[in-house]
Amino acid sequence: MLIVMQCNWEINNEAPSIQKPSKSPPQPPPDPLKATGNDRPLRISYITEQTSHHPPVSAYYVDCPERGVHAQGYDQISAKFTGTAVKVTPGVHNQGIFITLSQRNNEEYQLKHPTASLSGLIRGTMYISVADTCFITCPKTRLKVILQYMEESWLGKSQNKVVGVIYRYDPTNDKYSRIKDVPDKDVLARIDGCWQDKIYWTIPSTAAVKESNVDPTSSKQLLLDVSPLMPVPKIVPPAQEQLPNESRRLWNDVTQAILEKRFGEATKIKQDLEQRQRDLATEREKKNQTWKPRFFEQVTDPSGQPTLTPEGRQVLQDMQHLQFHLEEKPTI
Fold first, then answer.
1. How confident is the model over 240-294, as pLDDT tens digits?
2. What is the pairing mode between strands 57-64 and 161-168?
3. Would 157 be classed as within a structural domain?
4. pTM of the model
5. Which residues pair with residue 116 across a beta bridge?
């Protein structure tokens, strides 16, 4: 009875330019019933399945076939209480998000996750902070990004600063992990700003830039303004059409109890659901049965990239046509 979830997002086909997003109001969700021709929204489909209970790991796949973009990876986190904060790090099976651009010669980018902390426990005002270095790499284009999230002052206000560098690298000799070690001649662009507000980029006059026939910038250019961005609502199957182990249906009673502030009851329901998971695992062991995911080929994979089963691929295709129906199968 490991958990699955399927959903779509729909976004406007032609979004406002990212150059000055703060000058535009947040995008309203598109109405697919009114959309025609070029106004038809882009549809992004997502499927995830819990492939392991101990440790808890979920595989996921995201697909936007119209733009030739898909992403995959394993969702697994590790949380540790440090005394002043809760530190959240990627689990051993979580090697980041792998994004493929099929319309650009199948360029594949691996985006590593930084470590985050839920801080402010002592002051009583909790906030999320990030103080780590993470990487984005694409061996085919020989591009690498180093992003450094700056350490916050213990007493000062959270600044959420991030700086970064984009440069040419050698995939067979990837030796730089700090921004200051990257030779200036290899730098294509520099990044700095606030990851909860505005992020800017500049193109310096370097040998790598000249070789790329790109004009250097004399001033900072706005790359992204996060502040006006709004979450796009999910499109999900009606609750009555979901399988018993689909996430929103399975956890519905827990969610309702939390919303109604029945926290003790929510805890009891959660414990019962988790015990059911353990009972099913014990039953499989007694029958000498090996757990196999339904929509993904592997429980985990050393590459960090899960592979869809034929049924998983078909489900994603059906979701592009707003067909969410899944056949119920035996719970073992």
1. 888 888 988 889 999 999 999 999 999 999 999 888 888 888 888 888 888 889 9
2. unpaired
3. yes
4. 0.86
5. 88, 130
- CA dist., res. 60 & res. 76, Å (int): 11
Going across the sheet that includes 107-111, the strands are 4-11, 42-52, 57-64, 69-75, 97-101, 107-111, 133-138, 143-149, 161-168, 187-194, 198-202, 221-225
Q: Whose structure tokens read 């406007």? A: 12
220: nearest Cα among 195, 197, 193, 196: 193
DSSP for 189-209 reads: EEEEEETTSEEEEE----HHH
Q: Is the pLDDT of residue 40 over 80?
A: no
Domain-embedded: residue 192: yes
Of 252, 253, 251, 241, nearest to 328 by C-alpha is 241
The encoded tokens of residue 34 equal: 């009114």
How far is the C-alpha of 325 from the C-alpha of 116, rounded, in Å?
37
CATH number of the domain where residue 217 is located? 2.40.160.120
Q: Tell me whether the omega of the peptide bond preceding residue 55 falls within 30 degrees of 0, making it cis.
A: yes
CB 59 within 8 A of CB 263: no
Other Cβ atoms within 10 Å of 306 Cβ, number: 28
Handedness of CA 11, 17, 18, 23 (dihedral sign): negative
Q: Which two tokens stand for residue 71?
A: 């992403």
Q: How many domains does the chain have?
A: 1
**Amino acid (one-letter) located at 50:** Q
* Per-residue confidence band for 231, with pLDDT thresholds at 50, 70 and 90: confident
Asked whether the beta carbons of 136 and 148 are under 8 A apart, the reply is no
Q: Collapsing DSSP states into helix, strand and coil, what is residue 67?
A: coil
SS3 214: coil
Q: What is the pLDDT of residues 93-137, one digit of tens each?
A: 999 999 999 999 999 999 999 999 887 777 777 788 888 999 999
Is the model's pLDDT at 202 over the cut of 80?
yes
In the predicted model, is pLDDT for residue 168 greater than 60? yes
The answer to whether position 91 is within a domain reads yes
Q: By three-state DSSP, how is residue 32 classified? A: coil
Do 162 and 194 form a contact (C-beta atoms < 8 A)?
yes
